[in-house]
Design brief:
The chain is about 50% helix and about 15% strand. The longest helix has 25 residues. Strand 3 and strand 4 form a beta hairpin. The protein is globular and about 50 Å long. Helix 2 crosses helix 5. It is an alpha/beta fold. The strands form two sheets. A five-stranded parallel β-sheet has the order 2-5-1-6-7, sandwiched between helices. Strands 3-4 form a two-stranded antiparallel ribbon. It has two domains: about 120 residues, Rossmann fold (3-Layer(aba) Sandwich); about 60 residues, no CATH class. The chain has nine helices and seven strands; from the N terminus they run βαβααββααββαααβα.
Length: about 200
C-alpha cells in the first residue's frame, strides 16, 4: 500500500505556523499538531501530569501542568529542559504513530513541529515547509502576546535556529509577511503541486 507523503511544517516563533497549518487542513491535509498534543498530555488528568510533578515538584495542580511554573523551572537550564523533553517527547512520538496509523489512506499528512530542525526531526519527513515573515513583523507579533517581554523573546530566539538557515534548508518556504489571502493562495498552490507529483 502506498504510504502518505509526510510534510514537516516548521518556523520560528511568531511566523504564523499555526495559521498556515490550518490552511493545509482546509485543503484536506490531515494535520498533526505537536503543541496541541503536548497541551492535551499536560491538561487536568493528562497522561504526563504525574511524571512531570514527580520530576518538577510544585509545577502541577488541579488544572494539570502549570505551564508558567514549569517554564520557570526549566528556563535557562539545559539539563532540566532535557529532563522535561525525555518525559514529553516519547509520549508525543507515540501519539504521532497513532495519528499516522489512523490516516494511512491519506495522500499526504502534515506534521506541525516547531523545533523540527533543532531536534533533527527533518529525517522523519519527506518534505520540509518553512513558514517565514520579515523580522520586524515577527517581533511585532510576538511582543503582542500576553506575558511576552523583549528579553523572553530574545531567549526563545536564541534557542531556535535562525530563520535564514531554516529557509535555506527548506524544500518550500511560505511567506506569511503578506495578506492572509495571498498566503492562503500560496498554500493552495503548493498542495496542488505536491498532489500532482503524487498522482
Amino acid at each position: 500500500m502506498k504510504k502518505p507523503m509526510i510534510i514537516g511544517l516548521t518556523g520560528s516563533i511568531g511566523m504564523g505556523k499555526s495559521a498556515v497549518a490550518e490552511m493545509f487542513a482546509d485543503e484536506g491535509v490531515p494535520v498533526f499538531d505537536a503543541d496541541a498534543v503536548v497541551h492535551d498530555l499536560q491538561k487536568a488528568g493528562g497522561a504526563l501530569v504525574p511524571a512531570i510533578e514527580s520530576a518538577f515538584p510544585g509545577t502541577t495542580g488541579p488544572q494539570g501542568v502549570d505551564r508558567k511554573a514549569l517554564g520557570a523551572a526549566v528556563f535557562g537550564d539545559r539539563d532540566r529542559l532535557a529532563l522535561l523533553e525525555s518525559i514529553v517527547h516519547p509520549a508525543v512520538a507515540e501519539r504521532r504513530r497513532a495519528f499516522l496509523a489512523t490516516h494511512q489512506d491519506a495522500d499526504m499528512i502534515l506534521f506541525d513541529i516547531p523545533l523540527l530542525f533543532e531536534k533533527g526531526g527533518q529525517a522523519a519527513v519527506d518534505i520540509v515547509v518553512v513558514v517565514s515573515a520579515p523580522a520586524p513583523v515577527q517581533r511585532e507579533r510576538v511582543l503582542a502576546r500576553v506575558n511576552m517581554t523583549p528579553d523572553k523573546f530574545e531567549h526563545i530566539l536564541a534557542l531556535q535556529m535562525a530563520d535564514a538557515e531554516k529557509r535555506a534548508r527548506a524544500d518550500h518556504v511560505i511567506d506569511t509577511g503578506k495578506e492572509l489571502e495571498a498566503t492562503r493562495a500560496d498554500v493552495r498552490a503548493l498542495v496542488k503541486k505536491l498532489r500532482v507529483g503524487l498522482a
